[in-house]
Amino acid sequence: MLTGSYLEFHKEVQKFIPKERIFTDPFYTYAYGTDASLYRLIPKIVVQATKSEEVAKIMKACSMFSLPYVFRAAGTSLCGQCITDSVLITTSRDWNKMSTNDDGSLITMEPAVIATKANAFLAPFGRIIGPDAASINSAMIGGTVANNASGMSCGTLENSYTTLQYMKIIFEDGTELDTGSPESIESFKKSHKGMIEKISALAKKVNDNKALREKIIRKFKIKNTCGYGLNSLVDFDDPIEIIQHLLVGSEGTLGFIKEVTFRTIVDKKHKASALMIFKSMKDALDAVGLMRTRCNSRTKECDSELDEAELMDREALRCVEDNEGMPAFLKTLSEGATALLVQIKEKDEETLDKNIEIVMEAIKGIEPELPIQFTKDPAEYGKFWHIRKGIFTTVGSNRPKGTACIIEDVAYPMHTLTDGILELQEILKNNGYMNAVIYGHVLDGNVHFILTPDMSDPAEVERFGNMLQDVADSVATKFHGSLKAEHGTGRNMAPFVELEWGTDAYEVMKEIKDIFDPKGIINPDVIINKDPKGHLKNFKALPITNDLIDKCIECGFCEPFCPSNTLTTTPRQRITTTRYAQTLKNRNDMEGYEAFKKLMIYPNVETCATCSLCSLACPVGIDTGALIKQRRTELLTPAYRRNATFIANNYAGVLGGGRAVLSVVKVATDIIPHSLVNAMSAGVSKLSGGKLPRWSASLPGGHAFKDTRKQFGREDKVVYFSSCLNRTMGNPKPSKGEKEVDEIIIGLLEKAGYEVIIPQNLKPLCCGMAFSSKGYVEQGLQKSRELEAELNKASENGKYPIVCDMSSCTKTTRTYFETGLTMYDPVEFIHDFLLEKLPIKQIDEPILVHAICSTRKAGLFSKLENIAKICSSKVTIPEDVGCCGWAGDRGWNYPELNKAALRHLKPYIPAGTKLAFSTGKPCEIGLTEASELPYRNLFYLVDRCVG
């Protein structure tokens, strides 16, 4: 319940923000209050902004009522810099426009652009952005700049700070500055004369203090995101340049970054990597120093380039040695063995070879544990990088239940790197962290260490605090390094900023904060925090909740791939709210627990597509879809279960009834105008309390499977299983005289020389997905077992290949079949069996292709793409379109999910496109509805090319 200033603020923002983008209820405030850190604060109000005018008004409203506020983009931040117990301003995912200049040397991005999308946008120019953080697939550019996030390759010469060209900033009073516009700059200098004067005076004060100036220069020779970017004050004379560069790494404490323009870098295509195993940490670090001196342009003293050198200590290697695909030699390494994964990238082969020789020459005086050899084979060096990228994943997966997964991030001056890391190892062991893992980007003196403490235990919190103090004293005081190299200060290191920088520099930082935020309400307690114990408060509760999700580290890597991410909740939010419900239960607050569970039903359960694409993006492989299916099972009443059993036992009759109803409804929808159909459908569904599904103009008519086989007695045989949906529904928006999918497939199989075998007793057969996806596990298994038995008979126990016409059915059978019987996905069968047997003639017509979730999860995307390009010279597979959100039947009951999932589809459709293909009937309906193109099964494309 909002009171006082928060209630008044809520009334104010409702004047210009729609109510569906303002959240005050306990469910959504908790869901949106989650980030990737080990801290938890629950905002009182969450406001989602879609444009800069809204941000400015929200900021002014917060100032009017003196309410603290925090900006949040993707929420992958690791140090608690985007959480609050006050007002949270979130960036809409659709605030993501991009543009480039003619040669791609500059790219302009809105705050919700995801870094990998920017690189894909730049690909035609052969360029990329500089920052390459590990969260690049999910982090948004607003947060990337606000944290000055870097990564394995960019170092200090290609990060956000150094590649920044222009920025659009919204300040605490709502004023906007465009540093790329002379008119905006001139206007800002007049309206904010006092601010400009203060910035200029502060820069002069810093530069007049020789010792402080030299300290700043020295400390920014290595990665440093601890505190404000004081290098802005010594690198630039122009106050506008100082202001925009101070925003980099400011962690949302100085203003809002509305837009940013980067200078891009060349994406070098020629690569070679070597996994170097040395006998000790010291030998590995000595090798880094030699390579960096001889062959790294980070020193600005040579042309040759060493892009990456990733350190992995023995604990890091040990934690991945049992993972699938790991080299056997990892288990044989000595106790002190340390790895360096080195990568060189160049514009041509000749320069690459030259730099490999330079590297090998540089380290020839250090005897490795295993022979060192570079490889240019992507498959071979991909295995090496799989080791490196598997470290965090494996630690997160294997940590004890209920523990946090904490990644700390420090950097050392290069001349102290060896001594610093050796001392870091001792500090961790002395504090009882015997299995801590150390790895990182040592070309920049930057290393991470991973811990898995139980922060619900006061003794563990104390131990963690003692360890951080020891690390701070060592890194900052003794070795003059950075306590935060690339993860940002956040709440985690804010109490140590003065320790690292000294009083004079810290006072400058406080002046910066006062100049930009005189009321001190923009993200308070981040970077500047007076509480010396602030980093030991407000830890997340991570209760043991469910085996399916207990490994979750709440990083948010899953979120961009979720079809409901702009409608209701994301996988991370579903997990974190499920954990909160468990927390309430653990407190014995059963009233709160039951109330919160009810709030979870629509956003978490009903609008989850259970597509499980989240599991592909998750660093620890969590399938949130499986959690939701389990939750659906728990919600089933005995009556629902009895009905499901009746349907399963009488499936042929049920399908027949459905077929008849579809035919009747289809006649009606063909007569009635589409707008009226949608309105009537919505009204009927609403009157039924959502129990009756909605129908639309894309709803197919009924269809009965036709056995059109003509050729028998052939040696090559194939079993064709037509899915229950394809046996019941026709095509959405069918053309006159169009063949149904079963006729197309049988015709193609016979043209390829196969005798087609149809399973006996076909009418009641189903893979079980129609039941299991709704939570009816027992009935789903029953149908799967029935199908498996019939297919074993038809295929003579797998003697003949079996093909299905729906990818999702194939995926289901591979999950539930027990006899080892394999049913081929349409993509897999076309690619591996049909293409070589059919005379494919490529068409010159543009085609649109959708890779459904099952295809992606089965690793068949490249085969789908290959089929499409063989069949057509003009192929579009929309980059930003993943799960269609139809999800079997969700699209009928929750069409808003389909609409949200496919909101980006239409802009991807090239002019003149009339042909569109997929491999799943429900998806075809949803895609047709969203695109207004008649989507067809992929077999139709092959048939078109065979004639």
UniProtKB/TrEMBL annotation:
PROSITE patterns: 4FE4S_FER_1, 4FE4S_FER_2, FAD_PCMH. Keywords: FAD, Flavoprotein, Iron, Iron-sulfur, Metal-binding, Oxidoreductase, Transit peptide. It comes from the Bacteria. Its EC number is 1.1.2.4. SUPFAM superfamilies: alpha-helical ferredoxin, FAD-binding/transporter-associated domain-like, FAD-linked oxidases, C-terminal domain. PANTHER family: D-LACTATE DEHYDROGENASE, D-LACTATE DEHYDROGENASE, MITOCHONDRIAL-RELATED. This is D-lactate dehydrogenase (cytochrome).
